Amino acid sequence: MTTLNWSGNVRFGARSVESPADLAQLRRLVTGNERVRALGSRHSFNAIADTDGVLIDLSRLDVPYEIDEDAGSAWVPAAARYAEIAATVDRRGLALRNMGSLPHISVGGAIATGTHGSGDGNRILGASVTGLEIVRADGRLDTIERDDPRLAGSIVGLGALGITTRVRLELVPSFDVRQDIFLGAPWGEVLDGFDAVMGAGYSVSLFIAEWGTDVVDQVWVKTVTDATNAEPALPPGVTAERATRQIGPIASGPADSVTPQLGVPGRWLDRLPHFRRDAPPSNAGDELQSEYFVARQDAPAALLALRALAASIAPVLLVSEVRSIAADELWLSGAYGRETIALHFTWRNDPDGVAALLPTIEAALAPFDARPHWGKLSAAGGGTTVDRYPKGGDFRALVAAEDPDGRFTNPYLERVLA
Ligand SMILES: Cc1cc2nc3c(=O)[nH]c(=O)nc-3n(C[C@H](O)[C@H](O)[C@H](O)COP(=O)(O)OP(=O)(O)OC[C@H]3O[C@@H](n4cnc5c(N)ncnc54)[C@H](O)[C@@H]3O)c2cc1C
After folding, report:
1. 41 C-beta closer than 6 A to ligand 1
2. Average model confidence (pLDDT) across the chain
């Protein structure tokens, strides 16, 4: 078995990767193997998806879309990539409230790891989930609906609760968005007006190429366009130049993989993700990634703590991104119970250099109770013990109830559930 994750830093240890065509085959695979895990689009950077048993790729599974325009919701296949889901619901005049930076990932994998986009009013992507269909360890197809107390614990489920076959998403009426990029915003001004900067649009990202310089290199402002089509701007007191050419987060890299900018309005699905669906995202996989979530009120101090590490970070950094996320009640969400700021690092493809640096970063962020992203690299090898979360004990009990024999477990889960 030589299956690798997208960035090539994880070699899966599974005996085989199986692609069931229907539910009956999927159930047989689950009950007929001691260890199984679902595999999404393989975009996680740690071994969360791995197993020494059988990996199940659901992309051939025949499960239908079911779109309810009146209710503003849709059942979608868990293996569907966001690009496909977005195009499908947009054709019916509907939209996802938000998207991550890339539309290449599967909804099943994205919600399992707490994937998010940005925006003060936008929760993580899984917060739009109102129902799940899951094949359990005994082969039973279980449906969890909105009124089921297990739903809040099952969405960011780390793949520990079964194989999700379909996901019901809450949708909103389709809308248009424009992207405006501002260059060279002085750090002092950004920190003084931090809340206003992060609130300057529907979704705002700060990109930092070097933590030690005086400026935040790029501020991306995504704005929902309305009839007035007013020109988006950074708040008064923040001086930055409006970009006059298309630019990627890694400024020296190609700008043709990013979605249209320069204030040109377009459909939500072609503007909310940073990266185009038909191009390789980010640094095309020649990279590693880490991310930490801190409470919003701690963000300016956490950013200063990272700036103090600029010299150590510089040799391994491609780019950092800072985003905001609204608080939610999903048990293992990085934004559980607190308005959140996400501190992200796209690293050079230097596994040893990154591994050596992560403990230093985590020590600097420890005073802020920083929660690592479940799908990215952290010092422990990815993730963190669920006890760092207020509802972690409830999650452990849910796993014990739904998977008593550990069919869906792996070393990553053993560590975070220990
Ligand atoms: C270039 C790049 C950009 C990224 N940008 C963002 C971003 O903007 N925001 C963000 O938060 N993250 C981001 N990520 C991280 C990414 O969203 C997560 O790693 C996400 O989990 C990837 O989804 P996937 O389908 O590839 O899942 P995989 O990596 O394949 O799997 C992740 C986990 O989900 C489980 N899983 C997958 N499918 C199912 C299923 N059907 N049933 C049960 N469990 C399942 C797997 O078992 C595994 O445990 C980015 C990653 C890359 C490579």
Report:
1. yes
2. 96
pLDDT tens-digit profile of 239-248?
999 999 999 9
Ligand 1 pocket test: which of 44, 257, 274, 377 has the largest number of ligand atoms within 8 Å of its C-beta?
44
CA 125 to ligand 1: nearest atom:
11
The secondary structure of residue 196, as a DSSP letter, is H
Q: pLDDT digit string (tens) for 175-217?
A: 999 999 999 999 999 999 999 999 999 999 999 999 999 999 9
Topology adopted by domain 176-372: Alpha-Beta Plaits (3.30.70)
Mutate to test the pocket of ligand 1, among 26, 29, 113, 272 (most ligand atoms within 8 A of CB): 113
Topology of domain 16-58 in CATH is 3.30.43
Q: 141-165, pLDDT tens digit by residue?
A: 999 999 999 999 999 999 999 999 9
C-alpha distances in Å from residue 8, one per residue of 102, 108, 254, 270, 351: 18, 21, 21, 27, 11
Is the distance from the beta carbon of residue 49 to the nearest atom of ligand 1 less than 6 Å? Answer: yes
End-to-end Cα separation, the chain, in angstroms: 28
Q: Is 334 in the pocket of ligand 1 (CB under 6 A)?
A: no
Distance between Cα 123 and ligand 1 center (Å): 17
pLDDT band at 2, cuts 50/70/90?
Answer: low
Centre of ligand 1 to C-alpha 388, Å, is 21
Asked if residue 393 lies in contact with residue 331, where contact means CB atoms within 8 angstroms, the answer is no
Name the residue ranges covered by the structural domains of the chain: 16-58, 60-174+388-417, 176-372
pLDDT band at 256 (very low <50, low <70, confident <90, very high): confident
Distance from C-alpha of 364 to C-alpha of 216, rounded to nearest angstrom: 20
The H-assigned helical ranges of 288-349 are: 299-307, 310-313
Arch. (CATH architecture) of 60-174+388-417: 2-Layer Sandwich (3.30)
